[in-house]
Amino acid sequence: MGAIGMSRKERDRLEVLGWKERSGISLKVAAESMGVSYRQAKRIWRRYKAHKGAGLVHLGRGKKANRGYGVEVREKVLGSYCNRYLGFGPTLAREKLEEEEGICLDHETLRRWLIERGLWERKRKLRRHRQRRERRPCFGDLVQVDGSHHEWFEGRGVRVVCSRWWMMRRESRWR
Q1: What does the pLDDT look like over 75-84, one tens digit per residue?
Q2: What's the pTM value of the predicted model, to 2 decimals?
């Protein structure tokens, strides 16, 4: 008999059931240590007794998926993508395949196929850089409001009765 590929969970279950077999602990204790219900533990124990370690391996391992696409469909889709839709993203390509060629499949399936072939790579959008404002020479310059009624420019300009920030802007224009 060939080697059996087991997942970590299946190996842990094998260890617990071997421990149950050797020491004679109850199935309830074994179920708790495997993290399954008592009824599920009974099913697992029955398969273990009948097939030993091979009974713990998932029965679907190595089989083709029931809902999977055939190789012919995959090759047809990838061929038409290369010929007509090269450069399209998976969502748009899927829409075009459905419209023009009558091939219906999910955009995620198409994306996975394109990535496997190296025909498409995700391009991240660049974030717009937020430019910080220039620091003011004095702490609180932009927040401090000047409520005085002085004639700041000594008759040389418009009378300013507003924030110091506005006053600084006005002064920098006249320099």
Answers
A1: 999 999 999 9
A2: 0.48
